[in-house]
Amino acid sequence: MTASDTHRTIDAVWRIESARLIAGLVRIVRDVGLAEDLAQDALVAALERWPQSGVPDNPGAWLMAAAKHRAFDLLRRGSLLQRKHEELGREIEAQQAAPDLEAAMDDHVGDDLLRLVLVACHPVLSTEARVALTLRLLGGLTTEEIARAFLVPEATVAQRIVRAKRTLAEARVPFEVPRGAELAARLSSVLEVVYLVFNEGYSATAGGDWMRPALCADALRLGRILAELVPAEPEVHGLVALMEIQASRSRARTGRSGEPILLFDQNRALWDRLLIHRGLAALARAEKLGGAFGPFVLQASIAACHARARTPEETDWPRIVALYDALAQLAPSPVVELNRAVAVGMAFGPAAGLELADALVEEPSLRSYPLLPGVRGDLLAKLGRFDEARAELARAAALTRNDRQRELLLERAAACARDAAPPRQE
Amino acid sequence: MRFMVLVKANKDSEAGVMPSTELLAAMTKYNEELVKAGVMLAGEGLQPSSKGARVRFSGDKRIVTDGPFTETKELIAGYWLFEVKSKEEAIEWVKRSPNPFPGGESEIEIRQVFEAADFGPELTPELREAEERQRAEMAAKR
What is the value of pTM for the model shown? Predict the structure, then answer.
């Protein structure tokens, strides 16, 4: 094995082990910053040793031992805060006295990881900090990888992480897994962060830097891990289902020149059946847990309606309307309303849809949103009101930032203009 | 990236010998670990080749042969589908698997799954379109 082979292997081991390693260390030292430093020290030690000694049989245990060794070193030199000193010494001794260290570690892993992700997404932190910390501590991404994925300078991400760790230390955020309603509230922050990461990758167009689309895979992996950490929470499975089903369309959602293809125009044969299958299974898990549907389960249910339809015509629109009704009650937003208008238009005719869409015209947050005039234009055209439809489609074309999309909208506007011209009387 | 992880057959698997309770327990634990890490997309064990068949293509002809097949080491006894960041990560995960045939020799092969992006500029828009058409036709025939 060459040195660079070993380095690639160490990268892989780090990806597999780092979250568990850091999470285990946080339990012992009760400080995210220190835990991460210790884990990094262990990584450096591995980079020094393994190219000569070879990769050990149990690399995770090796890294944990190296990190604890380093913690002891720091303890001896008195460079750890007094407050932590005794506690830390006791913890480490207790662990070493444990007859079956490995088994004890296994028992802790789930709780450790959950505690770590809850801390990384703690409400005292800004959204950017939560994202950076989660990807770094749970996703095993480097600062550079995070920076590239979010198109910001590396120094900015490094700063965010440093500041986040300081905020956590200063706020004395407790390292515990809350129960009941508090757990649900804290979890919803975690789910939002994961979905935000997913969308950041999903909205990145094909081509360009591969780091951005790779965020979808990172988010999916985090979601799948969470689903096993808190299997009794329906919203976790809802989020996983939503991401799996959305990811299933990634092959179909951009055209040959990278232009976005809308759901109804997608070639459904390109949808990834395995991911759809996994998404529907995750949704079934959420449903089986019972209780009222949360926003992620509702969105996943809507996505599932599309996934189940082999052709656009097979779509169960009345069910989608009912789901949007529930979503609008639970998490009202103008974008949800607009989607509801589309669904109503499909289920109950364009006039009903237009009535809902018209109600959004005064909505300030949709003022420069091209989909609003786009949707209204569609509905007006279906009603035969071609003059108004043409004006709306032209407005949508002026608002969109996507060249290909603009062309399509202008083509449709032109078609409306032709239909609007009254037949010449001879 | 996706990897298909292929467990090669051996004399026992081909003879239909069921895995021991210990092996089943170890495999279950390993699978749980894969699921908890968000790595495993799918995985199944395969019945012996005596329950399978082959279709040989020769020009326009199709020749069907029932199993079993003799070249045991070339046969597949099971598979996983992993979603990981690198081949090295797939290797690290596979190294953690219990020996599928405890005490004996066995081999697990790791193969990367093609994704459209892998073709890069080699896959021209025209080829891509042809591929999309093929997929659509395949789906229509299903």
Answer: 0.86
